Each structure stands twice: as C-alpha cells, then as structure tokens.
Automatic annotation (TrEMBL):
<comment type="similarity">
    <text>Belongs to the folylpolyglutamate synthase family.</text>
</comment>
<keyword id="KW-0067">ATP-binding</keyword>
<dbReference type="InterPro" id="IPR013221">
    <property type="entry name" value="Mur_ligase_cen"/>
</dbReference>
<dbReference type="Pfam" id="PF08245">
    <property type="entry name" value="Mur_ligase_M"/>
</dbReference>
<keyword id="KW-0436">Ligase</keyword>
<dbReference type="InterPro" id="IPR036565">
    <property type="entry name" value="Mur-like_cat_sf"/>
</dbReference>
<protein>
    <submittedName>
        <fullName>Bifunctional folylpolyglutamate synthase/dihydrofolate synthase</fullName>
    </submittedName>
</protein>
<keyword id="KW-0479">Metal-binding</keyword>
<feature type="domain" description="Mur ligase central">
    <location>
        <begin position="51"/>
        <end position="273"/>
    </location>
</feature>
<dbReference type="InterPro" id="IPR018109">
    <property type="entry name" value="Folylpolyglutamate_synth_CS"/>
</dbReference>
<dbReference type="InterPro" id="IPR001645">
    <property type="entry name" value="Folylpolyglutamate_synth"/>
</dbReference>
<dbReference type="InterPro" id="IPR036615">
    <property type="entry name" value="Mur_ligase_C_dom_sf"/>
</dbReference>
<keyword id="KW-0460">Magnesium</keyword>
<keyword id="KW-0547">Nucleotide-binding</keyword>
Length: 447
C-alpha cells in the first residue's frame, strides 16, 4: 500500500474527524438511522462471530480467522482501533486463502458513500466507520464475518446484529470506567449486551468470578446455548503441546504461535466459538490455524527495523498494546515465562493515555523489571505526560525515568547495559497508540 493510496481514504476520514466528535457517545439510534439510509447492509452479512471483552478480543478474533481460513473459508474481519493505517480495521475474505486489508480506493469510496448517506446529521466517527464495516462486508461475499466490539457491548455501534452465529465474551476487567462502570460486574453487564435471545454464547476465561456470574446469568435468562471456559471447554499445556478438551473429547494440538500462556485460553475460546457458530472445521485446520496465527502489536517481537539501531546490540525487543491492569498481569506473566526459558534483564518503555490506570498496570511488573522509561504517546491527544507517568511507576514501586521518545529510551538502555554479558529484553507498551507509533517509526506496519 503506497503513501498515495493510504492518503485517499485517510483524507476522507480526516474530513469526518473535522465535522464529527471524536470518542464515544454510546447509543444505537444514530447508527440505526444511518444503516437504514444505506439499505440496512447489516442485515445482509454472512454468519457473524461477534466478539466483546476487555482483554483478548483481538487474539480470539485472530485465532478464529486463522482456523476458519485454514479450513478454506473466506473470512471478513473488523477490528479496532488500528495501529498505523485505517485499512487495518477492514480485512476482506478471499475464498480458499488468506484475506487482505481493504484496498484504498474501495475504502475511500465506502467512506464517501456512508458520509453522504448520513447527510450531515449528528454522529460519531466510530459510528460512520462501523457503518463502513457493514457496507463493505455486505457488498463482498464471504463465508463468515468476525466483528469485534469497539467499546462495551450493549450500546456499541456494532450491536445492531440481530442474530449472531455466536457471541463471544472474553476476559473482563476494569477499563473505560467512565463509560461502562467502576465495578467488573457492571462492565460485564454492558459486555453481555451483545448476547441475543436463543443465540449461542461462548464465555472465555474470567479471572473475576463476579463477571463470570453476570455473564452466565444473562445467557441463561436469554435462553442462549452457553459454553463456559473451565466448565464446558478448557485447554492446558502438556509436553509442549496444547490439549483442548470439551464434551467431544480431547484434541492434541500445537502450541499457539502467539506467545504467552494466556493465549492457551484464548485459543480454546476461538475453537469453541468456531464450533458453536456451526462451522465443522477439521482438526487439521485447527492445527494449521494455531501454528500460523498472526496478531500485530500484541506480544510481537520486533525483528529489525529502524528503531533497533538505537537499542543495545542483541537485545530482544517486544511490543504489546495492552493498557489496563488485567493486560499488565498477562503480559508480565509472559515476560516471566520468557525469563524462565532465557534469562535476560527486563526494561520497560511505557506510554499511556489518560483514560487508563497506570499504577495497576505497573504493579504487575514488580520484581520483574530493572527500570521503566516513560515516553509520550504521539498518536493520541490524550497521552499522559512522561513525568506524570514516571511518578505513577514509582508509586507502584518501580524505578522510573521520563524520556522524550522511544529512541531516546532505547539509547539509555543501551548505555546502562553496555558492559552486561547478556543483552537485555525490552518491552515497549502501555498503549495501542504507542505501539502504532513504534511500528510506523520502525517501518514495519501491519499487512
């Protein structure tokens, strides 16, 4: 995708950003009106796997896509936010092979048509971009569409789907409290809003029992066929293999390509979701999907690129966009696993926006990291000042220093470890916006 191609769709979206508010205004009235003006494209979709949750949404979406594509099915995928280019939000399925990000002319045309159909009425940009999803997915045939919720569930713009093939609720923790509530059970109730009466529901691994109880109670009240992780299906590692189990028996599978033990439960939820949605995929397709799955910006190792020249020679550099305490816990667990297998001193380079809970995130890394370097987030106007973020890290018990950029932080880590016999491990994260900045600066955007 060339810079010229990117700019055509980006320019159309920038026009919308100048006219309509950023952020979220949770309601279904505006999106319903707009979709009606477009001829209700959301009613002409292939079977939909609808995915909500605080953490793991992207991973389970990636697993579902990989498994279904390995079975020869064409798969549309909607995710948000994007990391570098708007096109990442829309992947169009191709029969018998991997889908591809929407081309720039097709996206630009869809954005223009949706904006014209809106007629200048009050609406958020996310709602327009969600309508673009439905328009694209209705106009391009596919076997299945995987649609990720943007925020919450009940009043998210994607929640106009009347009869999903399956609703998937991934782990729930505190995030977006201003919109969704300040207790996990309140957030769970909002996420449960994507469940539809009589439609299958898959509940992924839930750390919080109160969230799990709310989800189960909602599914039962709506008469939904329900599958609960740890009760109806589960997965664990055994002799370097992933053992998946449900009422149909055991499946001996390769470990997921995505690193981290938390991905075992995410992969299990995807297998169950694909089956619950009515797709009878062979075990060989599941094996191929787990081995080939990709999900940029989530525990992704940077292999080369411009930024690597600033860091210590031989350093392991990882990026992850997780940004809440729950995400901090699973990322820290993954870093601890890496340490067990291949000991290296760990340094963090963290940037966050002001809607997150930094101290809870940082506490997950106690006794794991040597030092934290905080950086600004250029991709968002809500970025926290690195000095304030360093103070949060210190309040969590970590040694922290504020820096002006990821490149500067990498340079400081290089100086600190210059004489160390073992090159360090570096985690860059705390925000998907920061991860997008890093991928763009490194010259390695998602494809």
């Amino acid at each position: 995708m060339t810079a010229t191609e990117v700019s055509e769709a980006a320019q159309e979206i920038e026009k919308l950003l100048a006219l309509h508010p950023k952020g979220f205004d949770l309601s279904l009235d505006r999106i319903t009106r707009l979709l009606a003006a477009l001829g209700n494209p959301h009613e002409r979709l292939p079977p939909v796997i609808h995915v909500a949750g605080t953490n793991g949404k992207g991973s389970v979406t990636a697993f579902c896509r990989a498994i279904l594509e390995a079975a020869g099915l064409s798969v549309h995928v909607h995710t948000s936010p994007h990391l570098v280019n708007w096109h990442e939000r829309y992947r169009l399925g191709v029969k018998g092979g991997k889908g591809a990000l929407v081309s720039d002319p097709v996206l630009a045309d869809a954005v223009r048509r949706v904006a014209e159909a809106n007629g200048g009425e009050k609406i958020t940009v996310f709602e327009i971009l969600t309508a673009v999803t439905f328009l694209l997915f209705a106009e391009h045939p596919a076997d299945v569409a995987i649609i990720e919720v943007g925020l919450g569930g009940r009043y998210d713009a994607t929640n106009v789907i009347a009869r999903p093939a399956v609703a998937v609720i991934m782990p729930i923790s505190l995030d977006h409290q201003a919109y969704l509530g300040d207790r996990v059970e309140l957030i769970a109730a909002e996420k449960a809003g994507i469940m539809k009466r009589g439609c299958p529901v898959v509940i992924g691994h839930q750390e919080e029992e109160s969230a799990r109880d709310v989800l189960i109670a909602t599914a039962e009240r709506l008469g939904c066929p329900i599958s609960v992780y740890g009760q109806d299906f589960m997965a664990h590692e055994e002799f370097g293999r992933l053992i998946f189990q449900d009422e149909n028996g055991l499946a001996d599978l390769p470990l997921p390509r995505l690193p981290g033990r938390h991905q075992y439960a995410n992969a299990a939820a995807a297998i169950r979701a694909v089956r619950a949605a009515g797709f009878d995929v062979p075990e060989a397709a599941i094996e191929k999907g787990l081995a080939g799955v990709e999900w940029p910006g989530r525990l992704q190792r940077l292999a080369g690129g411009r930024l690597s020249h600033f860091g210590p020679p031989g350093a392991e550099i990882w990026i992850d966009g997780g940004h809440n305490p729950g995400a901090g816990h699973v990322i820290a667990e993954a870093m601890a696993t890496f340490e067990e297998r291949n000991p290296r001193p760990l340094f963090l380079i963290i940037g966050m926006i002001n809607t997150k809970e930094p101290i809870g995130y940082f506490k997950a890394f106690l006794d794991l990291t040597e030092q934290v370097f905080t950086v600004p987030v250029h991709g968002s106007d809500a970025g926290l000042d690195p000095l304030a973020l360093a103070a949060d890290a210190a309040a969590a018990g970590l040694e922290a220093n504020a820096t002006s950029s990821v490149a500067e932080a990498l340079g400081q880590i290089a100086e600190l470890t210059d004489e160390d016999p073992v090159p360090p491990r570096v985690l860059i994260g705390g925000s998907l916006y920061l991860v997008g900045d890093v991928l763009a600066e490194n010259g390695t955007p998602p494809r």
